[in-house]
Amino acid sequence: MALVPCQVLRVAILLSYCSILCNYKAIEMPSHQTYGGSWKFLTFIDLFVVAVFWIIYAYDREMIYPKLLDNFIPGWLNHGMHTTVLPFILIEMRTSHHAYPSRSSGLAAICTFSVGYILWVCWVHHITGMWVYPFLEHIGPGARIIFFGSTTVLMNFLYLLGEVLNSYIWDTQRSMEEEKEKPKSE
Length: 186
Fold this sequence. Notes:
The structure is a single chain. By secondary structure, the chain is mostly helical. The chain is built from seven helices and no strands. Helix 6 (103-128) runs antiparallel to helix 7.
């Protein structure tokens, strides 16, 4: 039995709510302070969602967020999913020090996540005959491979950017605190 668009939308909304609950749980639990925490090293990757969504939306709205969805998802919720994420990424970057895993482990995790997500997108298309993102319908198989490959590279770049910014922000703050703690020699 193939999934109909309504069922796919319900599953997507359910997964969004579960994601929100997981994030709240991670904030309240001690795992927030542990090495890597609950997907902490993926935080800056959310910038990928913001950037890619709005770039494609500006190019052709129907390719990423058809007007039909306005009947199910109000505009404010769309902005909640694709716009307000950005300030929270920046706030979290400034208020939470992230203990990144080794660079090779982090990049391997990003690549694994990316390949897993790409496989999920392809699986949904295989089962339903519809692409999760409508713009994938308009490009050929070779272009899809290039798109998926370039998004994986972009995600790795954003991961590294997040790691560098995290180190810069927190190393600068740590050195400023150490300067204040040094006894003043007269």
